Amino acid sequence: MRRTVFSNLRLLGVLTCLTVLFSCSESKPTNEYSNYLFAYFTGNGEGEEAVHYAISSDGYNYYALNNDKPIIETSKISKAGGVRDPHILRGEDGTFYMVLTDLKSAEGWTNTAMLLLKSDDLVNWESSLIDIPEIFPDQFSDVNRVWAPQTIFDKAKGKYMVYFSMLQPGSYDKIYYAYANEDFTGLEKAPEQLFYSPNKKANIDGDIIVKDDKFHLFYKTEGDSDKGIKVAISDSLTGGYEPVTGNVDQTDDWVEGSGVFKLIDSDKYILMYDVYTVGKYQFAESTDLKNFKVVDEQISMNFHPRHGTVIPITKEESDRLLKAFPSKNLPGISTVKGDNVKTNNVVVDEENGAIFIPVKQGTDLSSFEPEFQMIQSLSIEPSGPQNFTTGTVKYTLHSGIKNKTYEVAASVNNNPIVEGYYADPEILYSNKTKKYYLYPTSDGFTGWSGTYFRTFSSEDLINWKKEDTILDLKKDVSWADRNAWAPTIAEKAIDGNYKYFYYFTAAQKIGVAVSDNPTGPFEDSGKPLIDFRPKGIEGGQEIDPDVFIDPKSGKGYLYWGNGYLAVAELNVDMTSIKRETIKVITPDSTFREGAEIFYRNGKYYFLWSEDDTRSPNYRVRYATSDSPLGPLNIPEENMVIKRNDNEEIYGTGHNSVINKPGSDDWYIVYHRFTRPKGIEMGDAAGFHREVAIDRMKFSNDGNIVEVVPTLEGISE
């Protein structure tokens, strides 16, 4: 065992590198957590296997400290020449404990040691090297892998338990545990096996978190047929872990290094993991540690981490770290929150010192107080409610070196109309309830992998209430359990009672479910309605249904297709089609998907989306007809809606249309990239979309006047 004492106090003299955003003043101690510390390494290259720090004010947006350089000199602590997988634990007595894998991957993936470190301040660390075969030759002389150690306090024993995976020849990686000695410089006795894999295959990267008096062990398995992150649960810290069926990671890519932490003052947990084959980190959110949803659209980092951990820290600790490990270009304000603030759409322009705050309808902007989220708890003036109705308000962020002033504007933005990530919106006015209902794709899932549908209700098209999930593929549909996309709905009076027919895409097939109410519950028919290609069609997908009931004949029609547009008449039951009526009516080469059909003043309008939903140029075109079956007449100028670069609105497409009853007021409901982050997200913008609504107008001859998408939306 080798022990090293070292200090980073020399870094305190580098205060001249601080930007105007950080304070050098001493802070009063506090036990309240305000920020998050992320410890990580950066890669397998020379010098990248080292401990790095990043800091966050909200658990979602992280900024590297020390200009993303190591905060510990690896050569002073490592026998192998590299350290990986840093895990930090806040001890019961206030001491911090860090454990590391001692490994330099350039020399191969075998190693025999790990490192135990402790600190009083997160800056200065004492280090001890634990070489397993050397210390425990009788039991583990042949060990050739000692990976990813972590630490947890055993309240029953009053000791710190270190757990990690080891590999011996002829076996597979197993997770072991041992108790650290009193001064955290060694292990009390030889490690014992902690977790027994049911399939006797490799399991590594264990991470234990306690919830509801249960120990949840997250771990990684490997192999083409069984790769991913799983969880096992036990009543005991040191054994009895029962695996839960399935994976908790939300990707099909190879992953490792899971870490779970609880958000401050929240019931939400974040599961993060290293998607190492594609060079990214993914965050997923949960309240029960069983069901997770990817929240990548909310995550930002100005660095590229590998396997690390996150802990909450206090203001005092934050200030200490910012002084010890200053970094350029750290923002003063990361975002703005508040009950009436559309936080996802806040724009912070650090370079120009400008902030835009979109707020909900009904917000009193003459007396509005933003909640600024800052990397550290600096003071900001003015305080209290301010008047935003006459223009921007100047806020000054104070630090111990220099101040920074921001021009802050706030205004009502009714777009997006619902909070969160939704796409492919269908809208219905119910004659039964006299309300509007929105039926979107549940978005925000990598690769469009959502599995459920929900609805929203409104009395005025402006204020929307989230209703319950109306159809869950995994629970309610027997023939498909993936890719819940692009629903459409029809209300029909049958024998004096209203019925609701909900057509949806699942696993690239189209199904139908029925209910007596617009908010469900909906009962699936038990089989797909469309799971075939029309005659003569060789490519495309059977997705994106649209249902239309002809007001002239009362007949129902179903339209569908990606790469082609098909139509068929529905039978009276609305749950089956007349196959002999199937017809392909693809408008032209601009047709991609997302058909929408409506009727106005004797004309049938056919709308469709052009390009790819991942493209900022995704947009809507139209044609008209004298019949719901075509032929289609395509105007020379047939653009319905496209990107608005002036307002940074992109990817406007896959729409529906609604007419306010008793009027000639028409509205287009569509999705767009999440704003402002979407345009920088690449392909991921195509599954991080938001629903918007704008007024749609017609010329005297019935042509659609091109809609310019807005931030304001509609207000009446």
Give the structure's gist in a few sentences.
With 716 residues, the protein is mainly beta.
Structural overview:
With 716 residues, the chain is mostly beta strands. A hairpin with a 5-residue loop joins strand 32 (452-458) and strand 33. 46% of the residues are buried.
Number-wise, the strands total: 49
General shape: globular
CATH topology of the largest domain: Tachylectin-2, Chain A
Poorly predicted runs are 5-30
- Mean pLDDT, to the nearest integer, reads 92
Number of helices: 4
CATH architecture of the largest domain: 5 Propeller
- Measured between the Cα atoms of the first and last residue, the distance is 73 Å
Placed side by side, the strands forming the largest sheet appear as 1-8-7-6-5
- CATH level 4 superfamily of the largest domain: Glycosyl hydrolase domain, family 43
Question: What is the CATH C-level name of the largest domain?
Answer: Mainly Beta
Strand content: 35-45%
